[in-house]
Amino acid sequence: MTVPRTPDELVPALAEVLGGTVTDLRRLSAGASRETWTFEADGRRLVLRRDPPGAPRPAEMAREAECLRAAARAGLPVPPLLRAGDGTDAIGTPYLVMEHVAGESLPGRLLRDERWAAAREGMARELGRVLARIHAIDPREVPSLPTVTDPLADLRATYDGFGETRPGLEVAFRWLAAHRPPAVPPTVVHGDFRNGNLLVAPDGLAAVLDWELAHLGDPREDLGWVCTRAWRFGAQAEVGGFGSREELLAGYAEVAGAAPDTDAVRWWEVYGCVHWAVICRIQAERHLGGTERSMELAVLGRRAVEAEYDALLALGLVSGVPAVPTVARPTAERPPAECPTVDELLEAVRGFLADELVVGDDRSRYLARVARNALGIVARELASDPSEHRAALAAAGCADDAELGGGLRSGALDPADGPVAAAVRSAVLTRLAVANPRYA
């Protein structure tokens, strides 16, 4: 069966599955892991969420459908689910069809536009209340959810599978292993509860989206994740840029009867930084490994260093506004290899221009900005001077980042030692200056 890829191919496929007339189909820009389309069907505005052609995950899609149904039964704000498929029908890949819910999900607008000012008031507390209700869902309502018993070990194993060494993440892993909070009974965990996966109306939260990472585990994971710096999108407030941790936990306590220990939530926040770094690398590997050729996924690999920086910031190992090393001058010596490489980034941009670009298309406009970012990374890396970082490594007694990271993992190097700490900071900040110099 041929999987529909273009709007012209997808319109008749949707009409066949839904049994109606489909018009105004367009793909939304958001979503690196799954495609999101909006369309009209017999006068109703609907949303299609499907796996990319060539990368089907039917079990995961079925789990998400199960979560949406359970959340709706619990009275949580979620898009009404109309249909779910495993990809064996005309859509050609696993999918969900949901009713359209009015609202905004783009964090830049939610955090800065005056239209959403009223929604921002009290949002952190409301998110706490919603999370408490998610964690109260009876696990028997979602029997297909996997149970995560040792998330830190799972995360370490995934990270190790890439065969790469990031000194900042090694420091974070050491801290996480040494400061594990006491275990609590497992609950339903959303797994990706954050600004960007929330649909917000002018008067408040309208829907919780993207349940694909839901599982049974420690409920404090969701609380730490929504506090992770990556989801503040440049704003200062700790909970998705909306408000404070105190507001979040107060809202949680309103529903759950008590708030989790703040130190435990902080542990999960540091874990969230490391988790996001590993997710970025996972997404890049989908492109690099040939599973799904995508410039957007490739460029995500370079965002891992942002999360690495956030982990050091959360641990107090870099200042809030550090002097990030800037690119200096062309040199014959190349900087430490980063993934994806310069050549792989250029090949991903070439693939976008040749295979993905659609003139006038909203998603293509978004991807054009991603391409511009990719070319900026290439230009900064080719112009960078690694000599200062080499000097920092030498002061710590290391030849390269791999030796530094290996020493941190084995315990041969102490991150509290001045030269070692300086080399870790240099390793992260030097790569951050190439990937996104404005991030810090």
Automatic annotation (TrEMBL):
GO molecular function annotation: kinase activity
Aminoglycoside phosphotransferase domain ranges (all copies): 24-256
Stretches assigned to the DUF6285 domain: 361-439
Keyword vocabulary terms for this entry: Kinase, Transferase
Entry-linked CDD domains: ACAD10_11_N-like (cd05154)
SUPFAM superfamilies linked to this entry: Protein kinase-like (PK-like)
Organism domain of life: Bacteria
Protein name: Aminoglycoside phosphotransferase (APT) family kinase protein
Record has Kinase as a keyword: yes
InterPro entries attached to this UniProt entry: ACAD10_11_N, AGP_Transferase, Aminoglycoside_PTrfase, DUF6285, Kinase-like_dom_sf
